[in-house]
């Protein structure tokens, strides 16, 4: 039987199936990236809900695996060399899963790096900007009288959607006909911007028809639909 005792996180969220990948997450845009990837790959895994509303990601057990205190985090009991490996940061986990399986990324080395650059585009640009729009438009930031921060993040978010829209013109997916981790990294964020963050009109989302069509295609995938609700919020 696989022994996960070296990972303190497994004491707070014990594994029923320690031989499977252990995912510690919550269904946020960053969290569902990994759930969607695992569902697309069909890799056996066990999902544990780390309730960020209860600050569970700041507990010592979670921080022992992810010192950044953000979801998701993951343990693969069958890591490199057959040894368990713990990982944090969603982009790194996506890359790990593609290396492990050889899927969800083009085989050609040049196209692989092109895919990775779009994952980084999400991590460095879309994620932080959309998150700030959500804070200033939907959450506590909306109470701030000075609307210049909201305007700054709105304008930058609109610019980034334009970058994505230009990329998707004439393409089904970010990498042409190849559905990859680049798409997976962004679907949850664009969905949240237009839905949960209620910022569709704010950023003029309907001006970007290629992104809108891509989002619709992505959300129609059964694995995406499943991944968006894993782990359950309870």
Low-pLDDT residue spans: none
User: Would you list the SSEs in sequence order as H and E?
Assistant: HEHEHEEHHHHHH
Query: Pairing-aware structural class of the strands and helices?
Result: alpha+beta
Q: Major sheet: size, sense and barrel closure?
A: 4 strands, mixed
Global shape: globular
Strand arrangement, major sheet: 2-1-3-4
For the record, give the distance between the C-alpha atoms at the N and C termini, rounded to a whole number. Answer: 29 Å
Strand content: 5-15%
Helix share of residues? 40-55%
Q: What is the overall number of helices?
A: 9
Helix-strand layout with pairing:
Blueprint: H1 9-12, E1 21-25, H2 29-41, E2 45-49, H3 60-65, E3 73-76, E4 85-88, H4 90-101, H5 109-137, H6 148-168, H7 181-194, H8 209-219, H9 222-227
Parallel strand pairs: 1-2
Antiparallel strand pairs: 1-3, 3-4
Enzyme class: oxidoreductase
EC number: 1.11.1.-, 1.8.4.-
Keywords: Oxidoreductase, Peroxidase
Task: Describe this protein's structure.
The chain is an alpha+beta fold and 234 residues long. The protein has 9 helices and 4 strands. The chain has a 4-stranded mixed β-sheet with strand order 2-1-3-4, with helices on one face. A hairpin with an 8-residue loop joins β3 and β4. The protein starts with 8 loop residues before the first helix and ends in a 7-residue tail after the last helix. The mean pLDDT is 97. One of its GO terms (molecular function) is peroxidase activity. Keywords: Oxidoreductase, Peroxidase. It is an enzyme of class 1 (oxidoreductase). Its EC number is 1.11.1.-, 1.8.4.-.
